[in-house]
Every structure is written in structure tokens, then in C-alpha cells.
Amino acid sequence: MKEFDDRLQGRLGHVFADPALLAQALTHRSFGQPNNERLEFLGDSVLNCAMSIALFERFANLREGELSRVRASLVCQDALARVAFGLELGSCLRLGEGELRSGGARRPSILADTLEAIIAAVCLDAGFEVARALVCRLFEPLLADVNPASPGKDPKTALQEWLQGRKLALPVYTMVRVLGEAHAQEFEVACEVPKFSLRTIGRGSSRRAAEQQSAELALAHLDKPA
């Protein structure tokens, strides 16, 4: 475990004065106590504050509502999971046997929560400014891709507007199945666009997240050049 921790600290660019904080941040509730649930709560607030400052400084011309939409797109589960994958957090997690068997080390919800917990651990270990710098480093690639002209529109809204703009019927979302145990369920939802006989399947830790992914897949297909 220490070897993984050392590698992770190198990728984070932060060496913990209190290694126990990092160990707790990497501990899922299925593993035992102390786990990272309380750190996740704090990390969510630290992340939102740090991202708000970054966006405020970077986009001087965006209004409040636009800034809020961009921030929502950058701190959502999918974005956090992408950053977590880049850090190879899955190989460092401390999971119970059930979560290990069910693929918890690759589950986006667990990876996103763990990343929030790590941000909180850095904040407790070295202060808010160090945590803010960490957020800026980790999310720089996502920040660089932000298009202020299209501030954080979610896939369901974007798909709906794409169809409405062509006076076509709205998509239909249908639950396909629910996977996993009650405490760690994943949902599969189909998005159907009848006009194009298109059906895509999305998966997520909530029905809403699965709908968003299925809408994103449908929009990607519809937006392909003819």
C-alpha cells in the first residue's frame, strides 16, 4: 500500500505531512472505519470553492448563471471520474471484498467520491491554498477545453434542443436494468430517437446519470458528419 501511496503522491504533486489523511481518503466505507465519507463531504465544498475562483479569474465576461453552468460541468461525477482515472486512483483504493469483486475500483461514483476526499485531505494537511493549487493542476486540461460560448450545457438539454431546432419529436428514455447490490447500484437507461431509429444505452450510478450518458451517445451519433 505504501508503494501505491508514494506513486499517488508523486502524481498529485503533494507529499502528506500526515499520511493517515491520505490513507483515510482512499478508504471506502465497505473496507471499514475510518473511511472517506466525511472527507468527501468537505472535499465537495473545497472543490466547488476552488473551481469558482478559477472560473471567476479565467472568464471575466461570463455572468453568474453561465459561471454556475460551467462549474457544474467541471465538478460533475463524469468529470471527476476522468481526473481520477488519470491519477490511477483505482489501483490505490481500499475496498471491501464485495466491492472488489463487483468492480468498485473502476466505478465512476467511487472514483469521483475518492477524488473529493483526497482534495479534502490535502486541505486539512496543508491548507486551502495548497488544495486550490491542486485542483487547478488536476483540472487544467478540462478548464482548457471550456468553451465560454457554450457554457456547460448538459447532454439531455443539448439533445432536446438539437431535435426541437429541427421540429422533431423529443427522445424517449426507458429503464433497461439495474445492476449491483442496493448500496452500489448502477442503472442502464435507453435513449430512443424514433425519427432516426436510433437507440443508445447509458450507464450511471443514478437514473439521471445514465440518462445523461445515453443522451450524450445519441447526440454524438446525430452530430456525425454525413
In short:
The chain is mainly α and 226 residues long. It has helices at 2-12, 19-25, 37-58, 64-74, 77-86, 97-101, 108-126, 128-144, 155-164, 207-222; strands at 172-179, 186-193, 198-204. Helix 2 (19-25) packs antiparallel against helix 7, helix 3 (37-58) packs across helix 8 (128-144) and helix 7 (108-126) packs antiparallel against helix 8 (128-144).
Name its key features.
226 residues; mainly alpha; Ribonuclease iii, N-terminal Endonuclease Domain, Chain A; Double Stranded RNA Binding Domain; 2 domains; three-stranded antiparallel β-sheet; 57% helix; 10% strand; flat
**Count of helices?**
10
Report the order of strands and helices: HHHHHHHHHEEEH
| N- to C-terminal distance | 51 Å
Tell me the fraction of residues in β-strands, as a range: 5-15%
CATH architecture of the largest domain: Orthogonal Bundle
Morphology: flat
Radius of gyration: 19 Å
By DSSP, the count of extended strands is 3
Largest sheet: 3 strands, antiparallel
Amount of helix: 55-70%
By CATH, the topology of the largest domain is Ribonuclease iii, N-terminal Endonuclease Domain, Chain A
Sequence stretches where pLDDT stays below 50 over 5 or more residues: none
Which class of secondary structure composition applies to the elements?
mainly alpha
What is the class of the largest domain in the CATH system? Mainly Alpha
